[in-house]
Give the backbone structure.
Amino acid sequence: MKTVVFAAVMAVLLLYVWERVDIVRVGYHVERLKSKKVALQRERDELRVKVSALTAPERIARAATEQLGMMPPRQGQVVLVRVEPTAPADAGPPMPELRLAKSEVGGRMP
Amino acid sequence: MTAKDPQRLRRIVVAFVLMLGFAGVLCRLFTLQVLQAAELTVRADRQHRKTVTVEGGRGGIYDRQGKVLAINMDVPSVFGVPTSLENPSGVARDLARVLHVRADEIERKLRQERSFVWIARKLDPEQGRSLESLSLEGIGTVMEGRRFYPKGPLLAHVLGFAGMDGQGLEGIERRYESYLHGEKQLVVLQRDALGRTVFPKGLNEQAPSAGHNVTLTIDEVIQYIAEKELDEAVATTRAKGGVAVVMEPRTGAILALAISPKFDPNAVRAVSPDRWRNRALTDAYEPGSTMKVFIAAAALEEKVMEPGTLIHGENGQMTVAGTVIHDHEKSGWITFSQVIQKSSNIGAAKTAMALGEERVYRYIRAFGFGEKSEIDLPGEAAGLVKEPKNWGRRSLASMAIGQEIGVTALQLVTAVSAVANGGWLMKPYVVSDVRDGKGQVAAQNNPQVRRRPISAETAKTLTGILEGVVTNGTGAKAAVPGYRVAGKTGTAQKIDPQTGAYSSTLFVGSFTGFVPAENPRLAIVVIIDEPHAEAWGGVIAAPVFRRIAEQALPYLGVSSQAPVKLALAMVGDPTP
């Protein structure tokens, strides 16, 4: 009987110690994950700044005109097209307005 | 003595020694846990706990399409511990290679008798990584939030900038500081014997909330177009500077606000503080002939004039209060419309005289001149409109031709928007909304009418006259192929600071107008300050108006013709 009680008390004590140790271990793990999260957030912010700098209109315009030989559309090269469905009115919602860029002056575009 | 006695004695001695040992331990325990408890608890806390101020990141600034214009990023700052350095000159040499600063400067810092010294703050992330790979002893890094303006000088005068400690100093950064800055919070960290942070037990840990995000009414692309065209005009005319403001006439939302010369908010100290000023709203200037638009509006509204009313041009010369008013083009009888289209000073002066002092003053004030427009940007000037009791004998005529009055570019574009939108004077604004980290709206700006200076009918008649300025008047160079443009040129002499009189060499050339005239989407003002050689607003500012409009209108999907109608046969049911 005595042995059983002793074993039970020891088991409870060991469980308690194991639990404390595990809390500390998990605590360190949580801290490691937190610093990893911060590092990833920093990387995300750095990439956001880079994306934003690379998509600056000035850079895009320079690349388009100097490297790709593009130019702003001239008058008449952008045509607004309103699409009107011929199907019956109850065939579905009306089609939205479409905007098409169309080159009407072939040969002038590089 | 029996044989057991020596054993018994030994046991007693051992027990006694052990008891003595335990008594010693108990005594020490009593001293530590009871007598010195308070003092030692404080010391332990100092070693295990560290209190740091944690600040939520500063909110970002975005354009109307959600493109990033200003954002915060954690970057390394490097410090030295001079007292723990053995070879300061070697460390300084290594640092100098990464930081691109002189080694002797760093060495001077490292030789100070101090335990902490900043070597460089807020470096580029790349430099931080190079420093880490060096792993120098006695040199450490901490992360600090740095403000980045990834688009460089784009929109710098509106965005403003934040200081080294992250507080907004100019522009939106300053005006919306209370929303943008992150929450500051004191956090107690538990550390183990190695200085590592231990996960706090039982602490309800919550990170401080980040600053709110601000979305502007500005469109990055239109802003770029305005800046590019303005810079080009300022460069070709060798002008001192220039301003271009693009507004949505129906709402008062600013789509672009360009100032030349520019500055880079990432390196504000590289230019003089004078360059930071948003001159579209801080600087008032004499507008010259663009003022005739508002005199004409008053005359039409008060039915003093009609487009066909005949006015005599006095053959280009008229004496008012002992001074002579000249016209650029000599004329006899001309219609009221032609007065505006040919920009006749004499015709405008006669119109103002027909209206009288009280009505001219009332309408000028009604169009928002002489008062702040209450735009959500800091540093706005009210301009200068004298009260009639302070007017001289020539003042009425002078005001009609845009002299003796100081207006800002912002006031001018707001006033011309009132003509464009059928008579409503709107409150200009640059921020559309402010949202917290979860996307909930914390503040919002909606179009707001300040007052109604003129009726829709007057606005329509005036628009017709202003269209004539572009089709057969002084503003021909503002014509945008495929669109109907209404506007007015202005060429104002500047006061020579040395003589105090109007200079014959210093001018301000301007154009203010809106497009398409029948359903205005853009109101634009362009001002070129002190151009060299050619100074006429119709020659230097009107082409800038045209180039901004002809690029911005297709971008906004405003067609130059009626939409082509296509009839598409729907084949089958489009839904699966």
